[in-house]
Automatic annotation (TrEMBL):
<dbReference type="InterPro" id="IPR004007">
    <property type="entry name" value="DhaL_dom"/>
</dbReference>
<protein>
    <submittedName>
        <fullName>PTS-dependent dihydroxyacetone kinase, ADP-binding subunit DhaL</fullName>
        <ecNumber>2.7.-.-</ecNumber>
    </submittedName>
</protein>
<dbReference type="InterPro" id="IPR012737">
    <property type="entry name" value="DhaK_L_YcgS"/>
</dbReference>
<dbReference type="Pfam" id="PF02734">
    <property type="entry name" value="Dak2"/>
</dbReference>
<dbReference type="GO" id="GO:0004371">
    <property type="term" value="F:glycerone kinase activity"/>
</dbReference>
<feature type="domain" description="DhaL">
    <location>
        <begin position="8"/>
        <end position="210"/>
    </location>
</feature>
<keyword id="KW-0418">Kinase</keyword>
<dbReference type="GO" id="GO:0019563">
    <property type="term" value="P:glycerol catabolic process"/>
</dbReference>
<dbReference type="InterPro" id="IPR036117">
    <property type="entry name" value="DhaL_dom_sf"/>
</dbReference>
<keyword id="KW-0808">Transferase</keyword>
<dbReference type="InterPro" id="IPR050861">
    <property type="entry name" value="Dihydroxyacetone_Kinase"/>
</dbReference>
<dbReference type="GO" id="GO:0005829">
    <property type="term" value="C:cytosol"/>
</dbReference>
Length: 221
């Protein structure tokens, strides 16, 4: 288990995020068609593809910190992703970037960047836990990471706990009546459908943990 996460981890997280969003594009589209306008998967896929283009552009300054990578994601998503996803995810990554301003992030840093991301999402979307939004995935994720950090765990362990909590949080949106966003107009008809933003959040955090575990395993060999 990696005690700290570095720029290489953040960069690989971005690459794997683009891959997982592409793999689950239609699933996210279908979820959003059920309770939204159907563009979540398409928009997020386009956004992360644009992030990869920026990341691989030789004119893009080489990141010196985890925050530099997260800021690149934030600014690119904000400029390329339409609908609610661009501003919400962009603000989340931007707030996280501000607290991850060093070359490495430990368990406390993971908890801090996730908490900052939650703050950004809440500030932008005005939602809270139980509203059937991505907040239902990110809030328990941040709390789980903090619990690991407070218990002396590693950065990788904090991320895995966050990913597990985010998955549970995303699934918890299935029976909820939406109180925010386009889904809120459906009332009881939204019950039984998972929030697409919560699902994509769980996917992205799972990838973050996968990359950290792979990096730790490689270092141990």
């Amino acid at each position: 288990m990696a005690d700290v996460l570095d720029v290489a981890w953040a960069t690989e997280w971005v690459r794997r995020s683009a891959a997982v969003v592409g793999e689950h594009r239609m699933e996210l589209i279908d979820l959003d068609r059920a309770i939204g306008d159907g563009d979540h998967g398409e928009n997020l896929d386009r956004g992360f593809k644009a992030v990869l283009v920026k990341l691989d552009n030789p004119d893009t300054p080489k990141p010196d910190s985890v925050g530099d990578v997260l800021k690149l994601v934030a600014t690119t998503l904000m400029s390329t992703v339409g609908g609610a996803a661009g501003p919400l995810y962009g603000t989340a990554y931007l707030r996280a970037a501000k607290v991850a301003d060093g070359p490495t992030v430990d368990a406390a840093g993971v908890a801090a960047l996730l908490d900052a991301a939650v703050g950004g999402i809440v500030a932008r979307g005005k939602a809270e836990v139980g509203d059937k939004t991505m907040v239902d995935a990110w809030t328990p994720a941040a709390a789980a990471a903090l619990a690991v950090a407070d218990g002396g765990g590693t950065a990788t362990q904090a991320l895995r706990a966050a990913a597990t909590a985010a998955r549970t949080g995303a699934e918890s949106t299935d029976p909820l009546v939406a109180r925010k966003g386009r889904a809120s107009y459906l009332g009881e008809r939204a019950v039984g459908h998972r929030d697409p933003g919560a699902e994509s959040s769980a996917l992205l955090l799972a990838v973050a943990a996968d990359v950290a575990e792979a990096a730790g395993a490689g270092a141990a060999e």
